Amino acid sequence: MEQSTKDRILDEALVLFAEKGYKGTNLRELAARLSLSKSALYKHYDSKEAIWNALLDKMEAYYAARFGSMDHLPQMPDSTEEFFQMALGMIRFTAHDPQIILTRKLLLTEQFHDARVCKLATKHFLEGTARIYTKVFESMMEKGLLKKEDPAMLAISFTAPISAFIHLCDREPGRTTEAFDKMETYIRYFLTSHAPQ
């Protein structure tokens, strides 16, 4: 299916905003990259702010549909091996999806300049992910796969090191294999450490 002009605008805007930030992004350059006139761009979005807000909406929906959200929880695992594969799949998506990489870069740089982006960064880098894993760990505890503990604290202790390794992949792509080896080892260690007695 051919991509709509509006989607093409948002995809290219993501690249520019991630590279140059909101203030550094010029709509004339965006239009030129898309081989559109500036007036053609304005037929679809009436301002840079409109493009920005539409992009944030699109990326939030994209992430929720593919990674998960409180409204779209992942399949609850029935074994620790299913959890291992589920967690690794979510990590691979987060670390390797080109749109998510650009979104993460955008959130990291713009979180200090835009209140909405600040909230999205907190959601994606900490609270939202921890809430999803809280539900996963509650389910695993009910099934006897993990010992009974505070699932919210368990989620924070699980997601914080993973998040740090994903940021390492962004900063130093040459260390991605090393980071993934450590994350796999960490997931196994976590499951062993919290196994029922």
How would you summarize what this structure contains?
With 197 residues, the protein is mostly helical. 76% of the residues lie in helices and 0% in strands. The chain has 2 domains: 60 residues, Arc Repressor Mutant, subunit A (Orthogonal Bundle), CATH 1.10.10; 131 residues, Tetracycline Repressor, domain 2 (Orthogonal Bundle).
Written overview of the protein:
The relative contact order is 0.10. It is built from nine helices and no strands. It is mainly α and 197 residues long. The model has no long low-confidence stretch (mean pLDDT 91). It has two domains: 1-60, Arc Repressor Mutant, subunit A, CATH 1.10.10.60; 67-197, Tetracycline Repressor, domain 2, CATH 1.10.357.
